[in-house]
Design goal:
single chain; mainly alpha; Cytochrome Bc1 Complex, Chain D, domain 2; 2 domains; 0% strand; globular
Length: 208
C-alpha cells in the first residue's frame, strides 16, 4: 500500500467514524439541551410532569411555553420556584426549553369537534363543550380547541394533572395569576363554583 492510498483510506475511515458518532434526528431530539437540564427534575425528561412538583409540558405549544417563561421572568406570573428558574434562562435559553418540550409527544386523544354532540347528560361535559350562556360562561373548547388539545397561546388541558388545573383555575379566580388576554381567564374562573372547578379539572385530566 502506498502513502497516497493509506491517506485516502484513513480520511474515509475518519469521515465514517464522525458520521457514526453524530446523533440521528431522533437521538438529537432526545438529548436534553443545557437550558432544560434543571426543568426535568420537576417536569420529567419527556415533559410528562411529576405531580405535584411540576405540570405536564408535553403537548403544550412552543409559543405557550415561551410566553409563560417570559411571564415568570417579568414577574407577571408569580411562583416561588419558577421565577428564579426562569431567570437562569439567558440568551436562547427560553427557545431551547420551549422547543425541546413542545416536541415531546403527548397521549393521543381523539378530537371531538364542538357541535358534533348536541345533547350532554353530564353537566361537566356540557360546560366544557357548550358553556353556560345564562352565566356568560363560554365553552372551554372555544379557546382550548377540540377535546381541549390546545394550540398557540391556549394550553392543552387534555391529560394535564387535575391538581394543576384546579390550582390554576383557583389562581385565576383569586387574581394571583395574571397575563391572560383582556382578563379572559380571570373572568371565566370567577363564574365557576368550587365544585365546577373540581369537576372540570378531573374531566380534562382524564381525557387520555
Amino acid at each position: 500500500m502506498n502513502i497516497r492510498t493509506f491517506v485516502i483510506g484513513l480520511t474515509l475511515c475518519s469521515g465514517y467514524a464522525a458520521a457514526s458518532d453524530a446523533p440521528s434526528g431522533k437521538q438529537s431530539m432526545d438529548i436534553i439541551p443545557p437550558a432544560a437540564q434543571l426543568c426535568v427534575s420537576c417536569h420529567g425528561a419527556k415533559g410528562e410532569g411529576i405531580d405535584p412538583l411540576g405540570p405536564r409540558l408535553a403537548g403544550l405549544s412552543k409559543e405557550y411555553i415561551s410566553t409563560q417563561l417570559q411571564h415568570f421572568q417579568a414577574g407577571v406570573r408569580q411562583n416561588a420556584t419558577m421565577m428564579p428558574m426562569a431567570m437562569t434562562l439567558q440568551g436562547d435559553g427560553i427557545e431551547q426549553v420551549a422547543r425541546y418540550f413542545a416536541a415531546k409527544p403527548a397521549n393521543h386523544v381523539k378530537p371531538v369537534i364542538r357541535g358534533e354532540q348536541v345533547v350532554f347528560n353530564d353537566d361537566t361535559a356540557r360546560l366544557a363543550y357548550q358553556g353556560d350562556w345564562s352565566r356568560g360562561l363560554p365553552a372551554c373548547v372555544t379557546c382550548h380547541g377540540p377535546s381541549a388539545l390546545g394550540g398557540g397561546l391556549f394550553p392543552r388541558l387534555a391529560g394535564q394533572q387535575a391538581s394543576y388545573i384546579k390550582t390554576q383555575l383557583l389562581a385565576w379566580q383569586s387574581g394571583t395569576r395574571k397575563g391572560d388576554v383582556d382578563g379572559m381567564m380571570g373572568s371565566v374562573a370567577n363564574k365557576l363554583t368550587v365544585a365546577e372547578i373540581d369537576a372540570l379539572a378531573n374531566y380534562f385530566a382524564n381525557l387520555k
